[in-house]
UniProtKB/TrEMBL annotation:
GO biological process, one term: galactose catabolic process via UDP-galactose, Leloir pathway
Name by which UniProt lists this protein: Galactose-1-phosphate uridylyltransferase
Cofactor(s) named in the record: Fe cation; Zn(2+)
Keyword match Zinc: yes
Family matches, as PROSITE patterns: GAL_P_UDP_TRANSF_I (PS00117)
Residue numbers binding Zn(2+): C54, C57, H123, H178
EC class (word): transferase
Catalytic activity: alpha-D-galactose 1-phosphate + UDP-alpha-D-glucose = alpha-D-glucose 1-phosphate + UDP-alpha-D-galactose
GO cellular component, one term: cytoplasm
Residue stretches making up the Galactose-1-phosphate uridyl transferase N-terminal domain: 5-190
Binding site for UDP-alpha-D-glucose: 30-33, 63, 79-80, 167, 173-175, 182, 327-328, 332-333, 339
Family statement: Belongs to the galactose-1-phosphate uridylyltransferase type 1 family.
Amino acid sequence: MTTAKFDYTDNSHRRYNPLTDSWVLVSPHRAKRPWLGQQETVGKPNIPEYDVNCYLCPGNKRATGNSTPAYESTYIFQNDYPAVKLEQPDIDETDETDEIKKRLFKVQSVKGNCFVICFSPKHNLTIPQMKVDELVGVVNAWQSLYNTLDQERKEGNPYKFLQIFENKGTAMGCSNLHPHGQAWCLDVVPSEVSQEFKSFGKYQKDNGCHLLSDYVQLELKEKVRVVLENDTFIVTVPYWAVWPFETIIVSKERIPAIVDFNEKQNKDLATIIKQLTTKYDNLFQTSFPYSMGIHQQPFNPTNEEKEMSWFHMHFYPPLLRSATVRKFLVGFEMLGEPQRDLTAEQAAERLRNLDSEVHYLEKL
């Protein structure tokens, strides 16, 4: 039996994720192992400002034959290939008599609408390469879309939750490199968000305060996982992070949804997103891939949803050791529980020490 003191940077342990009521296995000693597996291709920065073959560049025709207008700033249009649609028949389960089947094979009809959000007319830009004022335009567009869809809900469309997200880079399944994100608006609250609301509600009941309020206070007190902060937001590598350089942007005070931001808060969000993604690119001097998404208050919220909603953004980037080595969730992660090799504190320190103002391409 060893008498040595436990070392969080070298000894395996599990960390609890209170947002999803789950655990992650942390194995920091595994970061020392050699890598002979798959390596990604490093993206080349010589991308044209306009691509005649890009469906999202201003003035070009899309795959459906529709034309993208000659837009000059952030532009939103309905997705030509939506994951959900407003017009579809309801599911008829009245003829199903098998009780076991009804218990095990549950199904729900889902209706909604999907949108593409072109961040910039310039094909060769990514978020960290855009100006803060341009990113304020993106935040304003998110706000405008939320307000528009909420008004459509009041007029009869069955909208409940707007999931705004971005998949950046081919490593995250992005099929078009033009700077863009998406927004899927469903008539239900998606599972990940619903689980967060359940966790927030349980924490509020058990402790008399919001989970994210305690989380922000604790992170600002300890500082070791804080990557960035400004007047409105903090960026941390969550204590329970799964992805190597996963981060979360959280408003310091409870702001339910993006439509509740004022002009100053809009600029604070745009600024901290640019700073974070600049750090990402500077980490391995590559256009850093990630999936990013906003969690916020649903439309027409219940009283509990009003109390539990707290604006935050998740960033899930896959790169592990370099621009060419990515993290895979396979094997034990699929069959047991998620696992990571780098502690949250180690990842935060590396990100914190990177330049957040000057992009690596500006130094070339």
